Amino acid sequence: MMRQVKHALFPVALVLFAALGPFVLEPYDLVNLSAFSAMAIAALGLAFVWGTLGILNLGHSVFFGLGAYAYAIAVSNLGDSTLAVLIGIAMPVAFSLVLGYFLFFSRLGDVYLGVITLCVTLIFYSFMTSTADPSFHIGPVPLGGFNGITAVPSLNMPGDPQAFLSTEATFSICLLSLAGAYILLSFLRSSDAGRIMTAIRESELRSELLGYDIRFYKLVGFAVSAAIAGLGGALYTAVMGYVSPNVFDLPQASQFVLWVIAGGLGAFVGPVVASFGFQLLSSQLGANQVFNTELIFGATIILFVMLVPQGLQPMLLGLSSLKFPNRFGILRRKEKPA
Amino acid sequence: MDSFVILCFAVVNSVALLALISLGLAVIFGMMRVINFAHGEFIMLGGYATVIANHCGVNLWLSMLVVAPMFVALIGAVAERLIVRRLYGHLVTTMLATWGLSLFLIGAVTAIFGNTTMGVSAPLGNIPIGAYSIGAYQLFLIGITALLVVSSLLALHWTKYGLIARAAMQNSEMAATLGINCDRVYAVTFIVGAAISGLAGALLAPISGVLPHMGAAYVARAFVTVISGGGALITGFLSAATILGPVEALLSYFATPVVGQASLLLLAVIILRLLPTGVSSLWTGGR
Amino acid sequence: MKLSRRSFLGTSAALSAASIAGSFAGGAWAASDTVAIASLHDLSGALDIYGVPSNLCMKVAVEEINAAGGLLGKKVELKVYDGQSDINKYPQYAQKAALNDRVVMVQGALSGAAREATRPVLRKYKIPFIYGSFYEGGLCEKNTFCVNTGGNQQVVPLLEWSFKNLGKKLYYIASDYNAPRNFGIWNHVMAKREGGQVLADDYYPLDVTDFTAAIAKIQAAKPDVVHSCLVGGPAMSFYRQWAAAGMLKKIPIISIVFAAGNEHEVLAPEETDGVIVAYNYFQELDTPKNKEFLAKVEAVAGKNHPYINGEVFGGYSGVMLWAEAVKRAGSFEREAVLAALESSIRWEGPAGVMTTDGPTHNTTQDVHIIKVENRVWSLIEKKEQIPPDTYGGKCNVFTNPNQTDFLMPQI
Questions:
Q1: pTM for the whole thing?
Q2: Which stretches are transmembrane (chain B) (predicted)?
C-alpha cells in the first residue's frame, strides 16, 4: 500500500503542476517548461528501454527526431494537430519495429547495438542536412535541409485546425503527457511483461532458458520507447514551432544518455528531474554570462558524476532509507568484455 | 594512369586518416572498455600543443612528435587519476564523465586561447603526378600511421608489457591473482592512449583547422571505426578502417560526399549486423 | 498561389498569439529611463567565432549611442544571450527577450538555421528583428530587416570581376546546407549573364575534414577559378590540403565566406595568400570613419580585439541603422520604427554610405573586392551602392506584407 502511494506521488505532483502552473508562472516560463517536458518525455523512453530492458540505445534521438519531423510534416499537410501527434508517435514505432527486427533477431547486444543506433541517427542527420534543395518536399512542405522546417503550427483543438491552444493549455498538455508517459511506463514495468523484461536485463541467457522469447520482448520494449520518444518529439516541435536536423545529431543523442545516467539508470523520476535540471542549467548559463558556458557545464557534469556516480534517484533513495549495502544498484556491476 | 594513381592515393589516405584518429581510442576502449568521449579533445589538445610550441620557437617536427604526445599524456594522466580511475567498470558513467571532460577542455582552451589561433602550414611541399599533385606531407602521414600501427602491434604481442596488458584485458581477476597490478596497467594504458591521440592531433594540425571544436569532427567516426572493429585490439580497428575508408573515399569521389559519409555509417551497421561483435570476431571467434 | 495553406496557418497562429503578446507589447519602456535591445549570438560552442565579435560590435554601437546621450533621452541597455551554438536555444531566448526582458529590438541569429528558428518567434511577439549577417538574399519579411549584403550584392560583383579577370571556367565547392546551395544558383545565374561556365557544384557535409578526393576532382576538371563556399572549422582543412598539394599558386580561389570565420588568421599565409573575397566591410578599410570605429572597438575590447570582418560588422551597422530609424520615428514602437526604416534611412559609417531599402527590407551598400596577403586584406576594386535584388518585383513588403518564405533566384 505504502509503495503504491509512493509511486503515485510523482505523477500527482505533475498533474497538480499542470493545473496550477498557468496561474503562477510567466508566459515565458510556461513555453520553456513545455519544451523541457517534451524533452523529458523522450528521456523517459530511453530510461525505460535502457533501465528496464538493458538495451543501451545511444541513438535514441532517431525516434525523437522522427516524431518531430513526422509531426511537422503531418500538421502542415493536414492542418489538424491531433492526428499529427498520432502520426508523430506511429512513425517512430514503425521504424523501431524494422530496426529492432534487424537488431534483436541477430542477437546484437551491448555497446555494439548502441553504436548501430548511433550510426542510424547520424545517417538521418546527414540525409536531412542534404535536403536543402526545394525538390525535397512532402506535400507543400519542403524538408529545408540544415535550416529545417519552420513556422510549424502549434497544437489546436481536436478537429478544429483554426482553434489554436493557448500557451497555458499547451503547457498543461505537455505536463499531463509527461505524467501519462510516466504512469504508462510504470505500469508496464510492474506488469508481468515488465518483470520478464527486467529478468532479461539481469540475464538474457537465464530468461531464454526459462522459455521466454527475449527477441520478442526486446522488440516490444524498443517500440514502446520509440512511441514515447516520438510523442516527445511531436510535442517539442509543436511548442518550438520548428524542427531541424539537429534533432538527430550527436549532442542531442548524448543529451538523452546524460539525463538518464544522471537521473539514475533503472529509475524514472530521476531522469525526468535530471532532464529538467540540466536544461534549466544550460538555459540559465546562456542568459547570464558568467564565464565560458561550456567550461562551467562540463565542470558541472564531471562534479556530478564524481559526487553522485549512481545517479540522482538511487542516491536520494539510498540516503532516505539508509540501506547502504544496496546503495549502488546495478551500476556497480562490472561489465565484462564481450 | 595518373588518375588511377591519385585515386589509390585518396583511398590509402582515407584509411590512414581513419586509423590515425581511431588508434588512441582503440587502445583505451579495447583494453579498458572505457568509451572516452573526450577523445576528440585529446586530438584537439595535441593540435594546440603543436601550434603553441611551434610559435614559441620549437622546431615543428619536435613539437609534433615529442611535445604534443607528452603534453596530452600529462593531461591524460591527470584525467585518469582524478576521474577515470574512480569509475572503472562503469562503462556508462565513464562515458558521461568523459563527456563532461570534453566540454570542460573545449571551454578551458577557448577561455585561454580564444577561438582563433594562428596555425602552422604543412611542410615538405608537393609531388606532381601527371596532371595532379599531392601534398608530400600526406604521404608522410600515411607512412607514420603505418609505423604507429605496426609498432603498437609489436609492442602488444612481443613485449613483456604487451603480454601483461593483454592478460589484464582478457581476465583481470586472473591477472591480479598472478600478481599484476591491474589498476596500474589501466593507468598506463590510458596515458598511452591519450599520448597516441595527442600525436594524431599533432600530425593533423598542419592539414586541418586547429580550433577548440575540431575534435567533434573526428569523434563519431573514430568511435564507429573502433566498435565495428571489435574485440581484437589493433587488428580489429585496422580491418574496420580498411573496409570503411575506401568505401567512403570512392563514393565521395564517384557519387557525392554525402553518399560517401552515409555509406560509411551504413556499412558499419551492416558489418555489425553480420558480425555482431565486430570484424575481428572473424578470427578471434567472437571473444 | 503563393499564399499557401501553410503560410495562412502561420499567420493565424500569429494572430491567436497576439492576444498574449498584446498584453506585453509596448508600455514596458515607456516609464523607465532605459530601453533594452537583445543580442542573440553564439558566444560559446563551435560557432562562437562568428558570434563573439558580432556581439562585440553591437556593444560598441550601444556604447557609442549612450555616450552621445542615448536615444530619445533613454539609455540603451544591451541584453546578451548565449545561443551556445545550439539552435534549440534560439527560440527559447527570443521568447525570453520578448516576454521577460521586454526588448524593443532583437539582433543576431547569424546562421541560417538560427535565423529561421528565431524569425517566427519574433514575428509572433511583434519584436523587430535586425539581421546582421550577410546571407543568400531573398528574405523579404515585414518584421525583419537585413542590414548586411544579400546574395546578389556579394556574388554578382565578385563573379563579374572574376569572369572578367580570372577566366570563364568556374568550379564551385561548398558546404552542404541552405545558403551555399542558394549561392550555387547565383553562380549559374551569373555564368549565364557573363558567358561563363560552372564546371561542377560540389557540396560537402559540414564535418568533412579529408578533402583529398575533392582536390583530385578539381585537378581533373582544370577550372580557371575555384569558388569556395566552405564554412566552419572542419572545412579549413580544404585550404590546408589545397595549399599542401601546391594548388594555391596554380588556380585562384574566390569566396564570399572566407575570412568570416577568421580563416585568414587560423591558416598560415602560405596557405591563403591570394584568396579573393567580396564584403561590404573589412577591417583594413582606409577611411577616417573606419579609424574612428576601430578606436571605439579598441576602447571596448582592448588592443587585441578579434578581427572585425564583413560578417560581424553587421552587429555595428545594424544597431546604428536601427538607432537612426528610432530617431526619425521619434518612438521605439515597432510600427513606427519599421516605417522609418522603410523610408530610406541614410547612414554613413565605416563601410561607406548605407541606405535602407523600403520594399525589400534589405540595405543598399558598397561592396569591396579584396585580396589577402600575409594575413592582411587589401582593396582590389570598390563597387558603389549596390541595391538589393528585387527578385523580379516579388521581394516587396508593401505589396506582399504577409510574405515570410524565402525567395530563390531564377536562372
A1: 0.84
A2: 6-29, 36-54, 60-79, 91-114, 134-156, 185-207, 219-238, 250-275
